[in-house]
Amino acid sequence: MAWIILIIAGLFETGWAVGLKYTDGFTKLWPTVWTAVSLVLSMGLLGWSLKTLPLGTAYAIWTGIGAVGTVIVGIILFKEPATVARLACVGLIVAGMVGLKLFSGPGA
Known about the structure:
The protein is mainly α. Helices cover about 80% and strands about 0% of the residues. The protein contains four helices and no strands. Helix 1 runs antiparallel to helix 2 and helix 1 crosses helix 3. The longest helix is centred in the middle third of the chain and has 23 residues. The N and C termini lie close together (about 10 Å).
């Protein structure tokens, strides 16, 4: 269950990171509210997952989900480049997250 919570926390991290783009320097009310809510949920769920998951693994996966998700949203919504090099780098982040999960030890 902690892994599912961590994944959801990472998705909310993507939400608040993308939300920052829409706040226009925190001058737009509803994007700012969504960003703040996403931030609180992301941190709260990360903290909850840390009850049972190793800190280094959980934090790296949380930030990895946020980073990969933000890149994907940037490509889709903001027409950022989807070059082979960028996608390969995203693949390396995903490979690192998978490796951390696989080699975190029993129970993690």
